[in-house]
Amino acid sequence: MTAAIIDGKAFAATVREKVAAQVATLKADHGVTPGLAVVLVGEDPASEVYVRNKGKQTVEVGMNSYEHKMDADTTEEALLAVIDKLNNDPAVHGILVQLPLPDHLNEDLVIGAIAPEKDADGFHISNVGLLGTSQKAMVPCTPLGCLMMLRDHHGSLSGLNAVVVGRSNIVGKPMANLLLRDSCTVTIAHSRTKDIEAVCRQADIVVTAVGRPQMVTGDWIKPGAIVIDVGINRIPAPEKGEGKMRLVGDVDFASAAEVAGAITPVPGGVGPMTIACLLANTLTACCRANGLAEPEGLTA
Ligand code: NDP
User: Fold this and answer.
1) What is the CATH topology of the domain spanning 28-117?
2) Which atom of ligand 1 is nearest to the CA of 209?
3) Boundaries of every domain in the chain
4) Is the pTM of the predicted complex or chain greater than 0.85?
5) Which CATH superfamily is domain 141-272 in?
């Protein structure tokens, strides 16, 4: 293996430390404690675990955590009423509605009801527009985490060729916008891209957000490129026992690591950065709400 491993777990810990230090300063100097409210509708076990982790990490960095659990058959009206209350609560600086929502609830409508300045996930259409026009936005957490790792590893990204594989609203498109803002030359590849291997081979930076296990192999990678693997896929792991599964990314780690200059593993790469960036976004929202300077090293 030639590639350096970009350790997302360790880097996320440093991001949380930075957040905690700036939260402590906020409290001491301004008497303000950032607050993050998470709304969970229904009992999806994966979402419950994720929400529990978010709450735990929020408290660990010194912020206030507010959890709103609602029944799976909650009406849109009831959910919108909770969001309205949080929008108007000065102790709440960030609001996150855990997705996916049950089918009877309109996600666009619900996300659109969050006050844009409290939109900790950066999914509100106003924040999408602000990011797309290089203005001060709330930035989606996963792409923000990828950007932080890239900057930390490489410094300035200006002039680099970047290929983002995947064009979803939550990862691919905001990732491409962030890289463009950092002056990369950006290509977005997707399921209709012709000769996608050759497109990726041009890239100094490859970010994959596809959801297809180990699709990107070493022969897609330019020697020395930085590979950021957002994908989280479960595949059978017979070596662990019958019926066991393991997590892999969109990148075939073994072959890509032979060619790349640096690579994120799965698990332990992008994944841990997502909650760390949620905390960073909540701190950013709190600073903005109080007319204070943006937190250092924690924004796009
Ligand atoms: P989506 O399903 O919304 O988007 C997948 C994208 O991949 C689409 O744009 C699709 O193209 C493209 N795609 C699908 N098949 C191919 C192919 N064969 N070749 C090229 N492109 C292809 O996924 P998300 O963006 O929500 O998530 C992507 C992955 O990232 C998933 O594994 C998810 O679990 C993971 N993820 C991880 C997070 C983390 O915290 N680490 C957070 C969010 C997501 P088209 O538009 O043409 O259909």
Assistant:
1) Rossmann fold (3.40.50)
2) 28
3) 28-117, 141-272
4) yes
5) NAD(P)-binding Rossmann-like Domain (3.40.50.720)
pLDDT, one tens digit per residue, over 221-245 is 999 999 999 999 999 999 999 999 9
User: How far apart are alpha carbons 67 and 75 in whole angstroms?
Assistant: 18
> What is the CA angle 47-51-53, rounded to 5?
120
Name the one residue in this structure whose structure tokens are 């996300």. Answer: 111
Active site annotation includes 22: no
Task: Give the residue, out of 220, 230, 275, 279, with the most ligand 1 atoms within 8 A of its beta carbon, to mutate for a pocket test.
Answer: 230
Query: Rounded distance, CA 187 to CA 163, Å?
Result: 5
Residues with CB under 6 A from ligand 1: 142, 165-168, 170-172, 189-192, 196, 209-212, 230-233, 270-271, 274
Q: What is the mean pLDDT of the chain?
A: 97
Residues 6+ positions from 113 with CB-CB distance below 8 Å: 80, 83, 84, 87
